[in-house]
Amino acid sequence: MWSRSYRNRPQMGERRTLELDVATPGVDATGRAVRVPVGVAPPAEPSEVGGIGSEHMLLNLGPQHPATHGVLRLVVELDGEVVVRVIPHVGYLHSGFEKLGEYRHYNQIVPLTDRTDYLSPMSNNVGLALAVEKLMGITITERCTVLRVIACEMSRIISHLVWMGTTAIDVGAFTPFLWTFQERERIYNLQEAWTGARLTTSLTRVGGLMADVPDGFVEGLRDFCRTFPKTLDEVDRLLTKNAIWCGRLQGIGVLTGEEAIDFSLSGPMLRASGVPYDVRKDRPYLDYETYEFEVPVGEHGDVYDRYLCRFEEMRQSTRILEQALDRLPDGPINVDDPRVILPPKRAAMNDMEAMIFHFKQVMQGVEAPVGEVYFPIENGKGELGYYFVSDGTAKPVRWRIRPPSFINLAALPKMSEGHLLSDLIAINASVDIVMGEVDR
Amino acid sequence: MNPSVSALRREFGETIGRATVSCGDTIVYVDGGRVRDVLAWLKTTPDQVYNFLVDITAVEYRDPERALEVVYILFSLDRREQLIVKVELAKDGPLELSSAVPIWRGADWLEREVYDMFGITFLGHPDLRRILMWETYAEGYPLRKDFPLRGRFSRSEQVRQALNANPEAHYSMEELSIAAAYHDLPREMRERIDRGERDVVPELQEPTADG
C-alpha cells in the first residue's frame, strides 16, 4: 500500500488537492474553493426538562486561556455544545492610559501608545503624532511622510501575521504560525534597527520622527518585500483551499453589512461584510491617495472572508511599501520649528538660544492651541482614532483612544450565539483583538 | 462649517445650541433632552445619513465650573462627512442622558465605558454596568478630574480590599441569575434583576415630524 501511494503521489507542479467527499466543503474539481451555504444553523431545540443535559451550563472561558488572545474572559451559557449566550468581560488589563495622558506632555504620550495595540506599535505612534500635529497646525516634511507610511504598513503586516498565525493555531494548524512568525521576526529586526526597540518603538515625535532610518534599512526592507510574497503564497496554498480550514471558517460568525455598520465595526471586520470603508481611501492622510493599492472587500461577512481580506491586505501593504521605498526623498525628517522639535544636542550645549528652547521643551512641553481634534487612521485592527481636547496648556484636557478592537469585540455575542463552542473560538480569533487596546 | 448644522437648526430650532469649527471638524451642541431624536434624525434623513457611529466619549474640563460634555462622533459612509455632536451636562444637575443603543448597537459598550469612567447614566441602555472596572468597584469614576491619578486608596489598602472581596462579585448579575449563586447576591442586586432592569433593548421612538 505504502509503495503504491508513494508512486502515485502528485508530481511537482501538479495541483495537490485532496479528493473530497461531495459533502465535505473544500475545493471542487477545478480547484476553486467551494462554499458551504451561508447562514447560522438554528439553535438546537431545548432538551426535555428532567432529562440528561436539560440544564444550561455556565462556562468560564478565560481570562487565562490561550484561545482568548490575552486576558479576555467569556462567560458562556451552553446548551450541550451550542452557545446560547456569550457575556464578554474585559478590563483585566486596564491601565488607565487615557487618565495618564492627561498628566503628560504630548510627546510623553507617545510611549503610552506603544502599549495599547502592542502588535502594531509604530502605526499607533504615527496616529498620535498626526492627531497632535493637526491640533497644532504643523505640516510635516516629505521624507517624514513617506517614512511614516512605511512604519504604518510594516505595522499592518506584522499585525496581520500575528493574527494569521494565532488563528491557524486556534483552528488546529500549527505550521502557518511558524512561517508567519518567522516573517514577523524580519520586520521586528528592521524595527529594532530603526528605533532601537522591538516592541515599544516610540517612533514618532510631534513634528517628525525620533530617528531617521539607519544604513541598510532600505535594502533590508526591499529584501523583505521581495521574499515576503513567497511566504504568503505558501500559506495561501496551505490554507485557502484546505478542506478543514474552509469547513471550520465558512458560514461562521456571519454579519451582514448593515449589522456591521450598526455595531460600528471597522477594518477587515467591516470590509469582510461588504462595506468598502477604509480610512486610507475615504479620509486620506499621509498622502495615501497617491499610492496605488486595492482595498479587499468580502461578500459573505463570515470568518473565512475576514481571513481573505486580511490576507490580501498584506499583499497590498507590500505593494505600498515598495512604492514608498521608490519615492523616499532625501531631506530632513523633522520640521524646522524650534518650538516643537528639540535642538540638536551639540547646539543645546553650545548655543544659549538653543539651550533655552531645549529647557523649555523638556520642562514645559509643547503648548497646543485651545481646541479639539479627532484624527482617525487605518490600523491593522480597524479605525484607530485619537481625540484630543486642549485648553491651551502643554497637557491635553482629554485624550481619548477610539479602540478598534474594543468596538469590534462588542459584536462577538451577536456573531457567536447559536454556534458551537469550537466555532466561538474561531469567531473570537477572527475579531483580531489585542487586549492592551481593548482594556487600555 | 458643515451644512448639516443649518439643516439641524431648521429641523430642531432651539434644541440646537452653538456650533464651532475646530481643526476643520464641525462641532454642534445639542440640548440633552432631545439628543436621541437628533441622532436618529441625523442617521435616517436621506441627505444627512450619518450612519456610522465612530465614537461616544465624554470630556471633563479642568475648570470645575464648566459642564461635562458627552461627545458623539458621527461619520457618513456615503458622503464621507464627519459631524461631532456634543451634549453639555451641568455638574449640579443629574448626569443623565437617553441612550443611543436603539439607534446603533455599537453604542452599547461605548456608553458603558462612559458610564464606567465618568458616571454618566444612559437612560434606556439595556445593560448599563461597569465595563473596564469591576461591578463592585466603589472608588468612583476614574476619568473625572476629582479622581486622583493614583487612585483613592494606597496599594496596601487596595490589596486588602481585593482579598476581602467576594469572588462571586466578578460575575455579572445576568450570569449569577443563570448560576445557582443568585440567592447569595446582595439584596439590592437581586431586586435589580427581579425588576428586569437589564438586557432589554427599548424600541426606538421615531422622531416626530414637527421637531
Helix and strand topology:
The complex is a heterodimer of chains A (440) and B (211).
Chain A lengths: L1 H6 L49 E5 L11 E7 L2 E8 L7 H5 L4 H9 L6 H16 L5 H30 L3 H21 L8 E2 L2 E2 L7 H23 L3 H7 L7 H6 L5 H4 L7 H4 L20 H25 L17 H6 L1 H13 L6 E8 L4 E8 L7 E5 L1 H6 L2 H5 L4 H11 L3 H5 L1
Helix pairs in contact in A: 3-4, 4-5, 5-6, 5-12, 5-17, 6-7, 7-12
Chain B lengths: L3 H9 L3 E7 L2 E6 L4 H10 L7 E8 L8 E9 L4 E9 L6 E3 L8 H12 L2 E3 L31 H10 L8 H6 L8 H8 L17
Parallel strand pairs in B: 2-5, 6-7
Antiparallel strand pairs in B: 1-2, 3-4, 4-5
Architecture overview:
The complex is a heterodimer of chains A (440) and B (211). Chain A is mainly α and 440 residues long. Helices cover 46% and strands 10% of the residues of chain A. Chain A contains 18 helices and eight strands. Chain A has helices at residues 2-7, 97-101, 106-114, 121-136, 142-171, 175-195, 217-239, 243-249, 257-262, 268-271, 279-282, 303-327, 345-350, 352-364, 404-409, 412-416, 421-431, 435-439, and strands at residues 57-61, 73-79, 82-89, 204-205, 208-209, 371-378, 383-390, 398-402. In chain A, strands 1-2-3 form a three-stranded antiparallel sheet. A three-stranded antiparallel sheet of chain A has the order 6-7-8. In chain A, strands 4-5 form a two-stranded antiparallel ribbon. In chain A, a hairpin with a 2-residue loop joins β4 (204-205) and β5 (208-209). The longest helix of chain A is centred in the middle third of the chain and has 30 residues, at 142-171. Residues 1-25, 36-44 and 46-53 of chain A have low confidence and may be disordered. With 211 residues, chain B is an alpha/beta fold. Chain B has helices spanning 4-12, 35-44, 107-118, 155-164, 173-178, 187-194, and strands at 16-22, 25-30, 52-59, 68-76, 81-89, 96-98, 121-123. A five-stranded mixed sheet of chain B has the order 1-2-5-4-3. In chain B, strands 6-7 form a two-stranded parallel ribbon. The longest helix of chain B has 12 residues, at 107-118. Chain B starts with a helix and ends in a 17-residue tail after the last helix. The relative contact order of chain B is 0.12. Chains A and B meet through α2, α9, β6, β7 and β8 of A and β3, α3 and α5 of B.
